[in-house]
Structure formats: C-alpha cells, structure tokens
From TrEMBL:
<protein>
    <submittedName>
        <fullName>Sulfotransferase family protein</fullName>
    </submittedName>
</protein>
<dbReference type="InterPro" id="IPR019734">
    <property type="entry name" value="TPR_rpt"/>
</dbReference>
<dbReference type="Pfam" id="PF13469">
    <property type="entry name" value="Sulfotransfer_3"/>
</dbReference>
<dbReference type="InterPro" id="IPR011990">
    <property type="entry name" value="TPR-like_helical_dom_sf"/>
</dbReference>
<keyword id="KW-0802">TPR repeat</keyword>
<feature type="repeat" description="TPR">
    <location>
        <begin position="87"/>
        <end position="120"/>
    </location>
</feature>
<dbReference type="InterPro" id="IPR026634">
    <property type="entry name" value="TPST-like"/>
</dbReference>
<keyword id="KW-0808">Transferase</keyword>
<dbReference type="GO" id="GO:0008476">
    <property type="term" value="F:protein-tyrosine sulfotransferase activity"/>
</dbReference>
<dbReference type="InterPro" id="IPR027417">
    <property type="entry name" value="P-loop_NTPase"/>
</dbReference>
Length: 481
C-alpha cells in the first residue's frame, strides 16, 4: 500500500500552511496508533471541501484502521476520480479490496498499476498473492528478470524473492522455493535476542501467580485474547469468534503491550523495581482500575468498540497473559497450537512487512517457539480455567465439535454462523488474508514435509525430534479437552 508521502509528492499544487500542519500532526498520531485522534483533525478539512490528495489519503487510512472499510474505499475511489494519474492510489485501493475479500477489485487495481509501471516489483508481488502466477507465465518471467536489477530497494527485493518462492512452491519445487525464501529473509535486518526472551519467561515462571482479584469486572467489554506463534491459526479463530452476534474484533491490537509499557514505567518511576516482572503483586486496586481503563483507551484509539465481547488477536500477547489476567479477571485466553514445523516453514516463507524479526533465521524461529510454549505451559498450570490450548489440526479436521468447545470456553452460546468464518465482514490485515477467506479446510496440514531436509536448523533449535514428539503428545491431549 502506498504511503502518504508518495501521494503527496504527486498531488497538484502545494498544501496550505495550515493544511500541512494538520497533515504533519496526523502522521505523528498515526505512527502512535491514535487513528481516532488523527481523524478528528482531518475531518474538518474534508468537511470544508478539501480535495487535497494528502488529506483524502490519510483520512482513508484512518477509517481503514478503525475498521470502516467502506468509507475508506469510498475516499480512495474519490481520490482516483480526482487524480486517476496517481498509480500509487490504485495500489492502495487494490490492497484495501484484497483485505475485504474482493479479489476481482484487487486484481483490477494491481493491473492498473502495472499498465503504467509494468516492472513494479511491489505490484507484481502483490498481484501474485491474489492471483498466483504459473511458473512458465510471462509475469513470473518478469519477476525473475526484475530480481536481477540493482535498482530495487530492500523491500522490493525481498517481496520479489518471496513471490518467486511462492511460485516455485506451487510448482512442487521445494528446493528452489526454499532458496528464494532464504534470499528474501537474508535481506531483512533481523534483530532478535533469544537469551533475553528466555529471561523474560524465567521471570514469568518465578514471579507470576494466579491473582486473588474478584472474578468479574463490569466497566468495559469482556475480552477474549487469541494468541500463539504467528501463522499458527490465530486469524482463523478470531474470525470464528467474530461471526458470533455478540462479538467484535479489534484485530492485531497493540493495546495490551502498550499498557504493559505504561505499567512498567509507573513501577520504575515509583521506585518499586526495574525488572520487567516487578510490577506483579505491587499494584493496588485503584492502580489496576486505572491501567484497565488505560487498556480500553488504547483499544478505542485503534478500533470502534460496540460489542459486549471483543477479540484481541495478537500472537505475541502469549507472553503478556499475566498482565491481562490481573487487569481483566474475567478475560479468556485461547492459545493456538499448530505443528511447529508447519509454523516454522510458514514464518520463514512469509514476507512480513514489519515486526517478527525472529523469522529471519530458522534457529531463531525454533528458539522463539520453545520460549512461547514454555510460557504457555506455565500459564496453563496457573490459569487452567481461563486458558484453552486449541489444536489447529483438530480444529480444521473436526470443526463443529472444536468450535462448540471453543464457544463454551469463551462463555458464548452456540451460533451456526461460527462454522463459516470465511464470511466474516470487514478487512483482514494479516498475512492470512487468502487462507481465511476460504472455508475451513485441511490444506495447510503437513506443508513442511517436502522441506524436511531444509528445516534441520529449526529442528535442532527446537531440541530435536524428541521435542516435536512431546509437542504432538501435548497437542493430542489438548484436542480431547
């Protein structure tokens, strides 16, 4: 999706000083995740008749992030009517339509970009995600040619190699596919500290205990946290729950991690400790109430909250369930358990735009997987009634009984609509956008098997075949619950 600067550089004329000030402020707020506040500053310009490309672009982005995809798409279409020459806008419209499941609209948008810029690395790579290229197609050949260019940015080069890997994967050429995936990851600047992650989990195991806080709170919606390794099926479960009439979703919200930062800063400032777990056991009831309101405030800045139950689906919140339990004692947790080699391959073959630096190396993926499961095992022992370990394999092979158990765990009545997560309304802004627009299926099981020889560094980092056998035993036990 094009950024605001690309559109602004192409707009006619120069924005007024006051408009530019609003745009600069909006950019700052958006970077902080304060979309509603940014929108409050932009709307008076829009309502005053401004057709400035930067205003329309930023306003559309805010509406999109707040979950109002129809308004966002409408604003981008308005911008296209005004400036049909801005190919970047067509790319933005295509990305938005793709997220809502409108493949036809996405394909049309990317073709518009490619008509003007046939060698656009990002547009070709994005189009391949929506309508995969055949290995012997002209577009695949163009990607191979582009991959040799020395003028590509690191993001473009990574996207091209990743697309070529997916093309080889679809042609049942795992060796060639893996080489391209490895090239894509080698471009990324990974910054991950496995030892620091181990220390974080050590602190959790040593210090966190089940809270004696009353088991209910009524000053906000009830929250279901869906967590797990990235690419483990968290988006699927989010959409299963979001099909329930009582449930809304805030997507991959940073609200809990931001709240944890505030809590830690507060404890440091009041000289009650500097360790990352020193907050535990030191918060008064008034402080717990205050930080719960802080969490809800972060949520409301990122999404509209109108349901009695909300799903907070952020994979890395696996490590933050302790704080969630203290602040939201009636919260429920669902941890997705998927075969570690399928998860590892999926993470290594996915071209993440930001975050997830640990996916740059197979051994890092293994270390992260071990840390996450060690954390979850501890939480399961301490929060047995609140945490459900959900087997991905059982969910896709026996959907109805597993979804019934999932709804029971989250205190939701049965609704048939939950069997059709592919029909969820709204945008899906994760790498799983293609998979979750399909009916529940088993196509993602066992994808690692053709890549077995290439995944040895991951197996070694996990602890060898014995660790995987122990995981399989745990997964089978959780499936029977």
């Amino acid at each position: 999706m094009p950024n605001s600067a690309q559109l602004e550089n192409s707009s006619q004329g120069v924005a007024s000083h006051s408009t530019q000030h609003v745009l600069t402020t909006a950019d700052f707020l958006v970077r902080k995740g304060h979309y509603r506040m940014a929108l409050a500053g932009l709307l008076p310009l829009l309502q005053g008749g401004s057709l400035d490309a930067g205003v329309l672009d930023r306003t559309a982005s805010c509406y999109f992030q707040l979950g109002d995809t129809q308004t966002a798409i409408s604003l981008v279409e308005t911008l296209i009517e005004i400036r049909p020459d801005l190919t970047a806008v067509w790319g933005k419209l295509a990305a938005m339509k793709h997220s809502t499941g409108d493949k036809k609209g996405a394909i049309e948008g990317y073709h518009k970009v490619l008509k003007v810029s046939p060698n656009s690395a990002l547009a070709l790579s994005a189009l391949n995600r929506v309508a995969p290229f055949k290995r012997n197609s002209a577009k695949a050949a163009r990607l191979r040619t582009i991959s040799k260019s020395k003028n590509l940015s690191s993001d473009e080069r990574s996207a091209v190699f990743s697309a070529l890997g997916q093309i080889e994967h679809s042609s049942n050429r795992p060796g060639a596919a893996f080489r391209f995936f490895a090239k894509a990851k080698a471009i990324k600047e990974g910054d991950y500290a496995p030892d620091a992650m181990d220390q974080l989990v050590d602190g959790q195991i040593q210090k966190f205990q089940h809270s004696s806080t009353p088991e209910s709170q009524t000053d906000g919606p009830r929250v279901v946290f869906v967590v797990g390794m990235p690419r483990s099926g968290t988006t699927l479960v989010e959409n299963i729950l979001a099909r329930h009439s009582s449930v809304g979703t805030i997507g991959e919200s940073p609200a809990l991690s931001k709240t944890l930062q505030v809590v830690r800063k507060h404890v440091e400032d009041t000289h009650r400790g500097a360790d990352v777990w020193d907050w535990f056991g030191q918060l008064s009831e008034q402080e717990i109430f205050m930080f719960r309101r802080c969490y809800y405030e972060f949520v409301s800045q990122g999404q509209n909250v109108t349901h009695d139950v909300i799903v907070d689906k952020m994979p890395h919140n696996s490590l933050n369930l302790g704080l969630a339990h203290i602040l939201l004692p009636d919260a429920k947790f669902v941890f997705m358990s998927r075969h570690p080699l399928d998860v590892g391959l999926s993470n290594f073959s996915t071209n993440f735009h930001t975050g997830n630096e640990f996916t740059c190396r197979l051994d890092w993926i293994g270390r992260m997987t071990c840390s996450i499961y060690r954390s979850i095992e501890d939480y399961k022992n301490k929060l047995p009634d609140q945490l459900r370990i959900q087997s991905y394999q059982e969910l896709v092979t026996a959907p109805e009984p597993q979804i019934r158990a999932l709804l029971k765990h989250t205190n939701l009545a049965w609704q048939d609509e939950c069997l059709a997560p592919q029909d969820v309304v709204g945008a899906i802004r994760t790498a799983s956008v293609e998979q979750v627009r399909e009916k529940i299926n088993t196509k993602a099981l066992g994808k690692w098997e053709p890549y077995q020889e290439h995944l040895q560094p991951l197996v070694d980092a996990l602890g060898g075949p014995e660790w995987i056998r122990n995981w399989q035993t745990m997964d089978e036990m959780s499936a029977s619950c």
